[in-house]
Each structure stands twice: as structure tokens, then as C-alpha cells.
């Protein structure tokens, strides 16, 4: 097997993560003995290049937020190494991290709890200058007001309090605070998932514009693949504390290699209006994500994978490049050469791992229903299979029509910036 080289990049990475691990101990009894550990992040290695956006996607509980907090050093790693601009920052203490805080900032998911309700917007956005002892040219007030304008708020908001703002506006305040000191790296943890769908596109577009204006590098964490697709240059897919696939955005969407990525993508509606209404297949993974306290042996995804063979249960697949710039951790990848061709006997779990359903958009479904008489299921179809397939296809078409709304809004790049929610209600 030949392993293609990674895409050569002459620039040094801004952030380099190697073998990053975070286990949260579970303690019990009077003596508070450690009885187990939540393996939230278990051996992540990746680079973030200057000026790029790395999207990190995965189901709830797979360790995305923990990873974000580790690379911004809000959490102490159990093992591994984090380098920022070539400097090892893995174990820097608070004092030594302070100058670095200028360069590495975080935007949080919840714009309601991340702003101190007793402070004015001026105090909140101006806080990083005070903490860093920076005296901006032209004075603090003017600089903060400029920053407010830059994120689509009004300079008059300076003396207002967070409760006077909507969710979208609060997230803009959070963004202004994070960008006040012109950081180099911004880690945004689910920056739009707490917002109404109609507001999400505005905040995503704002982050995009600010990246160009200020030359920022982003790590954007999200569970929503349509948001991730819109903003990312490269995407890392996480499952149970590990990166299972890491690739350029277009490669990942056109030729996903990890079965988990394929399943995730099959649930994403097609944003192309010409193809809307076309039938597509959706892979529904059965079963829940296993506990990170006792993750499966071998490949962590093998208990839900339709391609799992013996080796998958025994040996963990390494994350390797199977195409240029496309890394995957799988013994039997999709769209690439099988890494273990001799191992062909499917595990029992693999045979029951998924439901594959045909999905039609809501519009198409309605048209079909109107045109044809009600279909009856053939006599020889087992009863259980009838009801299962009915349930699956129903939920699938529902999910798709619901999700496609999200995409059409999130992908509407032309949406003018949030004048309606951004200023109108609070300018009085
Ligand atoms: N401080 C903590 N103590 C113990 N366990 C924790 C702690 N923080 C996170 N965890 C556990 O680590 C695992 C990963 O959590 P994390 O929040 O990083 O996942 P996530 O992918 O960001 O999920 P979500 O999208 O729901 O926030 C979860 O099982 C979580 O319960």
C-alpha cells in the first residue's frame, strides 16, 4: 500500500496539536478514589494553518468542546502537546499564558450566560484591553465603539446592558470582545447553535467577513454540517474523542472515506435547488453513541458500522493519508483502497448497524401522494419490517425537509447583515 503525501504547505502551522488527551477522572467514596475516567479527548493530532478555518464536527459528547478548551488552554491536558507559533504552550501557567491570551481567543456557544449581566457593553468589550494593560490609540471608548460598529452594532450601545439585546446581538457582543485585541487564532464553540435559524446566517457571514478584514484563523466547532460546510476550508470529523477523518472541505463532501462521515453526510440535504426533489439514500445509524467512560475496543465506531470486521473490533486504525490532504482512520474506507482486504467476515453488529432509507423532499412527496393512489405493502412483507421501514422513511423525509430549511437560510450569503435584529430594536 502506498500512502500519498500530505498536501505540502510551505507555511508553518499557527497551531500544532500532537497526541492531545483529556481524561476527566470519576471519583467515588470517602477517600475520593478514582474509579474510572471519561475519555473525552483521546489522542488528537492536527495542524491549523494561518488564515484558514478548520471546522470540527461530530455528535454531542464526542469531545469537541473539550478539544476547544484544551487548545485555548482553558483546560489542562492529561497528555499530548499544543504548540502555538512554534512555542510549546501545553503546560504554561496562568501568568505565562497571559500574553498569549491576546493571540488566542474563544467565542462561546451561549450568548446569554457568557456576558456578565451587571456590566455594560462598553465594560465587557473593553475588558480585554484592561486585562492585558493595553492602551489603544484614540482611547478605549473610541476603540470599543469602532469594534461595536464593525460587528454590526451601534456605537450608542456602549452604555447598554446585555439584557437589552437579542440573542444574535449578544453573540455579536461576544465576537466584539473576542476580537477586540486582534487575536491571531479564534476558537468558536458552536457560535450559532443557540441562535434562531434566521439569525444564524447573519452571524456566520459576519465571522466570514471579519476573517477577511482582520486576517483571522478560525477553529469552528459545530454539530451542524451545513454551518461547517459554509465556513470551513478543512474539516475534522470527531467520534468518541478521536478524529476519524480530516480533509479539505470539498474532498470531504464529494468523497467521504470514513463510514461515519458518510452516514453524517447522507443526512445533510442537498442545497442545489435543481436537485431538490431528487431521491437520495439516507443512512440511519442504529443505536446510541457508546459511553466515553468505557469506549469500544479497536475502532470506536465498530459497534455502529456496517463494514465492521474482526480487525475493527481488535485493532485501532491509525489516522493516515489515503489521498492527498485526506486523512482517515478506517480499516475499510469508502472511496479508497481497502486497508485490510483479507479481513472480509462482517461482524454480527455490522449486519444490524444501519437502516438505509430512500428520502424524497417534502414537495416531491406531496406531489407523488397527490398523483398516485395509496401504496399498500406486499402481502409477504414481514409485519415488523413494514412498520420499521414506514417509521424510518417517515422520520427521514421529515428530517430532511426540516434540515433543508436550515441550509437554505444558512447558505443565503446575500442576506444583508442584521439590520432588522441588529439595531432597530435597541437604538432608542
Ligand atoms: N468537566 C467535566 N467533567 C467530567 N466529564 C466531562 C467534563 N466536561 C466534559 N465531560 C464529558 O466529556 C465528554 C465530551 O464532552 P464535550 O462537551 O467536550 O463534548 P461535545 O462534543 O462538545 O458535546 P456538546 O456538543 O454536547 O457540547 C462528554 O461525555 C462529557 O460528559
From TrEMBL:
Coiled-coil parts of chain: none
Compositional bias segments (type: Low complexity): 384-410
Entry keywords, A to Z: ATP-binding, Nucleotide-binding, Transport
SUPFAM superfamilies in UniProt: P-loop containing nucleoside triphosphate hydrolases
Secreted recorded as keyword: no
Keyword ATP-binding part of the UniProt annotation: yes
GO molecular function: ATP binding
Domain ABC transporter per the UniProt entry, residue ranges: 15-265
InterPro entries documented for this protein: AAA+_ATPase, ABC_transp_ATP-bind, ABC_transporter-like_ATP-bd, ABC_transporter-like_CS, Oligopep_ABC_C, P-loop_NTPase
Polar residues composition-biased segments: 414-428
Pfam families with a match to the protein in the record: ABC_tran, oligo_HPY
Region (Disordered): 364-428
Record family assignment: Belongs to the ABC transporter superfamily.
Protein name: ABC transporter ATP-binding protein
Organism field: Streptomyces longisporoflavus
